[in-house]
Amino acid sequence: MSIKTELTSWLQALGDLVYPKPPVCTLCNKSIYQAYFLEYSVENSANPKTQDDANARTEDNASARAYSHRRHQRLTSKEKRYLGKTRIELADHLCSLCYQGLKLITAPFCHKCGRTMTNIKLDGRSKGTDDPQVCQDCIQPSVQHRAFKYARAAAEYNDAIQELIHQYKYRGQRNLVEPLQIIMCNVFELHFKKQPFRIETLIPVPLHENRLAERGFNQALQISKHISNKHKIPIADILERTEYTEKQSKKSKVERTASLEHAFKVKNHNSAEQRHAGMVKAKSVLLIDDIYTTGTTVDACAGVLKEAGAKEVYVLTLAR
Ligand SMILES: [Zn+2]
Ligand SMILES: [Zn+2]
């Protein structure tokens, strides 16, 4: 580096110190500080057209507030810590309005798939199962025999988290990787620390090599890294996606299951990969991905890992 460029970068750093650029929200592009003021004006600018409308809205607000209050009161101290740490982590990336759009998952959630239990019926009992903590989807006979033990996720799959993941995966917002890694670590600590079992290996869900070449990175591998560093759990990138499947969202559930059944296998080409395979045998492993939609992808991967000798497979995703 020449003296001139070094001097320029020093001056730039000094300038940033004196006049720091206000952080901008990743999702709405507004200055993060400005949004704090907007939050108040949005609440006050709601203009009901009729008196009935106004009454309905007040009732809606009141019941929504009462509901969130009840939910908040039920939070365990571990969950409060999870919410607090995650808020701090995202403070420089999301304004408070967009942050409110992000629905972090706390109890009650489905004990099988990890989905939050507010927008679905909680009636496992009526369907003849004794477990009221399992959602409507998970009591279907077709998904009774999942290869994984259970899945957990950081946030409900909605527009906010979808956009955040989209910005990271397709819009080149690589600076999002750090907060996403830390959120994954926070949710890992919430659900997988101080358990009767210990997670011994992290396994990212693989991309097909064509897609990996196109994108340049595997998001599942990237978001596993902080858990690995902080908790000293090795990452074994041993799965391989052998079939180049089309975008899953365009297909029906049946087609999706069929297309994924043989889409994954354990890599076994060189000695490093064979050593990695040893990290699965008789171990409790955690499969990591960004999104859990129907559970078909993680189930297919878990099946392969079970065949390779894994004792138990758990799943952790950013969104569910
Ligand atoms: Zn925003
Ligand atoms: Zn479920």
Automatic annotation (TrEMBL):
Highest taxon, organism lineage: Bacteria
Residue ranges annotated for the Phosphoribosyltransferase domain, each copy included: 220-319
Pfam family, one: Pribosyltran
SUPFAM superfamilies: PRTase-like
Record-linked InterPro entries: ComF/GntX_DNA_util-trans, PRTase-like, PRTase_dom
Family: Belongs to the ComF/GntX family.
Protein name, entry field: Phosphoribosyltransferase domain-containing protein
